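[SOLVED] Predicted holo structure with S-adenosylmethionine

Edit: marking solved, answer below. Original request kept for reference. I posted the sequence and ligand SMILES and asked for the 3D complex as structure tokens.
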Amino acid sequence: MSTLESNFNLSKKYSREIKSLLVFVCKRDLSWLLSHSEYELNDQEEVLFKQAYELLLTGTPLAYITSEQAFYNYNFKVSPKVLIPRPETELIVDIAIESIVKSQEKAACLDIGTGSGALITSIASELQKKDQIAFKNCAFMAGDISTDAIKQAKINAQAYGLDNRINFLAGNLFTPFIDLIRRHNIRYLFIAANLPYLTKEEREGENSIKAEPDLALLGGKDGLELYLELLQQLKKYQDEFNFHLVMEINPWQAEKLIQASANNLSDINIKKTPDLNGQTRFIELNNRRN
Ligand SMILES: C[S@@+](CC[C@H](N)C(=O)[O-])C[C@H]1O[C@@H](n2cnc3c(N)ncnc32)[C@H](O)[C@@H]1O
């Protein structure tokens, strides 16, 4: 038998990952584990811990082992079929809330390439807490080309009681949304797009992401192919809607994406938005006339 004290010495050298594995295996929160160093793992817990630790050592991300990832103030279920939501993407939630509240009209919030659904669920939940009227006036929609991702996103929305407020649509980029937007007679769109933006070389050169799906990571030539296609799709509708589009990228892609945005869309404001490290992580486009 292993006690936490004899084998894991939680308060000192054990890493964040091991603590998280123990929380997962023992189904106790960390503060409980830290204050019960005499606790003995039972046989089942020991076996489970060993299996989980093995997976960690062979490069499986913690989130795929525990099937869970924290994002914004929430916890989302994840599987190897969806990207593990990243902390830098959380800023889109704040941008979305500000944009939708400011719009003061019937709006739609679109999450293109929703993956686990972390973004759309966090936006809807935060808006519900912060501004009931804006929440009521907003139609939430999330799309993905992967039906596995759509299933996962629905499960996550359901866990926060939002599955009835979010429409999930399988399909390519902006196209699956258009009928629904027109049916709701919506004129203002907030669009979040964290599309795959890595090149093949970037994907192959980074060990930490090797367990995540190609479909969620690879963005073709220059990593920007999906964003270019999205801009071309939006071009057709640019006079029909006011929109605020936020695209997450790697900092080195900023100038190319700005150029492509200016080439495809007319009369747009373009903004570079940094992440917490001061690097350009988002390109925001706005075609509001007023
Ligand atoms: C980088 S992941 C982002 C997932 C999630 N939004 C997040 O921030 O954690 C990109 C997502 O885009 C989806 N995707 C890839 N190609 C797409 C396409 N042509 N149309 C819609 N979604 C697409 C992938 O399946 C994946 O779920």
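OP edit: The chain has two domains: 4-58, 72-286. Thanks to everyone who chimed in.
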